[in-house]
């Protein structure tokens, strides 16, 4: 299958992944059209990260099928790496490196990278260029993670727990930036525990519970289907935790 004129950026069909007796992902299916923002939601342990790992080809699965840009991530990992950005958690960093060094190293990995100095400015990190990553605040590290995820000018980006640790101003800056990326045609797959974030960003959402889909659609559709007033209440209601 080729990647040209393929309206679907991400496809997951009947995905099954278990760890011993834990069914982490249970016959999960969804697609994400190109140029849209998709939110995968659910409590801790619902299966979100496992789904992302299967999609990125870093976790083998028992059955089903996944594809990114029409390709099997396990088979064409190197090629997809140039088109797919991933926000790693800050612990994946070599924190004895300076911000500038980690940017330069990441920059060198891509065929058509962004101007990293400009990106630092966009993320309000320009004055931290010479700082060691270990000295950054939690929020600054988080912004750096997002910056590194977009360094290769990806067509698809995976952002796991997007703005955890960011202050309200930084969260809004990140949201604005993601809207900008979407306008440029980038497909964004995110997980989040913040319903205001989900409402602001996501075109489509899917709520997972114990690896199974319990709701999907636009934010509005999910709120309406739940019979609740807003996304916060809809989420709790659907998770079986209505008050
Ligand atoms: N390597 C592993 N070995 C055994 N069980 C695992 C492993 N990775 C995940 N699990 C289990 O699979 C289930 C799904 O975990 P996963 O990390 O995908 O959840 P999550 O929705 O990403 O949670 P969080 O919001 O906390 O990141 C959990 O029950 C978890 O304990």
From TrEMBL:
Q: Where, by residue number, does the polypeptide cross the bilayer?
A: none
Any idea which UniProt keywords this protein has? ATP-binding, Nucleotide-binding, Transport
Q: Describe the location of the ABC transporter domain by residue ranges.
A: 10-235
User: By its UniProt entry, which SUPFAM superfamilies does this protein fall under?
Assistant: P-loop containing nucleoside triphosphate hydrolases
Query: What would be one Pfam family of this protein?
Result: ABC_tran
Q: Which SMART domains match?
A: AAA
- What molecular function does GO assign, one term? ATP hydrolysis activity
Q: Which family does it belong to?
A: Belongs to the ABC transporter superfamily.
Task: Report the protein name in the record.
Answer: ABC transporter ATP-binding protein
Organism the protein comes from: Vagococcus allomyrinae
Q: Cite the source lineage.
A: Bacteria, Bacillati, Bacillota, Bacilli, Lactobacillales
């Amino acid at each position: 299958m080729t990647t040209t004129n393929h309206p679907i950026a991400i496809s997951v069909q009947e995905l099954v992944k278990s760890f011993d007796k834990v069914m982490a992902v249970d016959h999960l299916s969804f697609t994400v059209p190109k140029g849209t923002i998709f939110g995968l939601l659910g409590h801790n342990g619902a299966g979100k990260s496992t789904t992302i790992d299967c999609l990125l080809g870093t976790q083998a699965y028992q059955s089903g099928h996944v594809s990114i840009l029409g390709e099997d991530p396990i088979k064409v990992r190197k090629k997809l790496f140039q088109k797919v950005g991933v926000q790693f958690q800050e612990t994946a960093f070599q924190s004895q490196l300076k911000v500038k060094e980690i940017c330069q190293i990441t920059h060198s990995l891509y065929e058509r990278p962004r101007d990293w100095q400009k990106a630092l400015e966009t993320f309000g990190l320009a004055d931290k260029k010479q700082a060691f990553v270990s000295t950054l605040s939690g929020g600054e590290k988080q912004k750096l993670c997002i910056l590194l995820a977009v360094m290769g000018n990806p067509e698809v980006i995976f952002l796991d727990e997007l703005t955890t640790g960011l202050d309200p101003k930084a969260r809004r800056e990140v949201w604005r930036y993601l809207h900008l990326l979407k306008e440029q045609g980038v497909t964004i797959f995110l997980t989040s525990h913040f319903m205001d974030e989900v409402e602001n960003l996501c075109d489509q959402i899917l709520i997972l519970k114990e690896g199974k889909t319990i709701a999907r659609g636009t934010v509005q559709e999910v709120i309406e289907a739940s019979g609740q007033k807003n996304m916060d209440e809809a989420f709790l209601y659907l998770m079986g935790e209505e008050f």
